[in-house]
Amino acid sequence: MAEQNLIRKRSSLKARLTAFEKYLDTLTTELEGLDQITTQAKFAELEQRISRAEQIITDFDSIQNELECIVEKPEEQYIIREDFESRFCKIISSAKSSLSNFHKQNIKKIPYLRASLEGTAAQVIKSIQVTSDNYNLAWGILCERFDNKRLLVQNHVRALFNLENIPRESSSKIRLLLDEVSKHLRSLKQLGEQVDSWDTLIIYIVTSKLDNYTAKEWEKHKSDVSDTPTLQNLKNFLKNRADLFRNDREKF
After folding, report:
1. What's the pLDDT at 125?
2. Among 1.25.10, 1.20.120, 1.20.58, 1.10.1660, what is the CATH number of 2-146?
């Protein structure tokens, strides 16, 4: 009777190890396409699961010791022990390797994270030391400080209204203006704003930044396009103006 109870307990431990192994197999697939915060949460969960899984071998060893002492022929039990321990070591090693690789990636990411930031954002994490754990800390602080959708939308809209004026016709200034507009509109679209319906507003903002001569040329051009010119019409016009102005300068 005691033997059967021990075997059932051992079977339960085998099932727990199998469940952990299946979890590891699906983890890689789950991580694909996840944002940084969710990925960090997944690896924090992995760390906890590893800690719990490591208890399995302790419980198994206790049960197996009892079984080997009460059975008449323990040789079979020795083989079971060896097989289980070998499987356990492979699974735990794989899990710890995944966790270690994630920490190494974090260490490499910290310099890139700092290099990609400027202004207030850079100052927020300036004093944080380069360690794997501190990458999670740095990212969390940045998200808490800046990952506010309403605030981000306001910042991009403000940036559009504050675009630099072009005092006189300049190919480089026109291209810079177009790049800035495209950048902020892309960001706003990613934040869920319906920027495809903003053409009239954006056209007004952009044309108010143009030099007088280019603005007058646009007024002439838009009447030939349609009654309601689109932002793409304006972009095409400005790109052509920039190319024309650059080519004229190259002739001299």
Report:
1. 52
2. 1.20.58
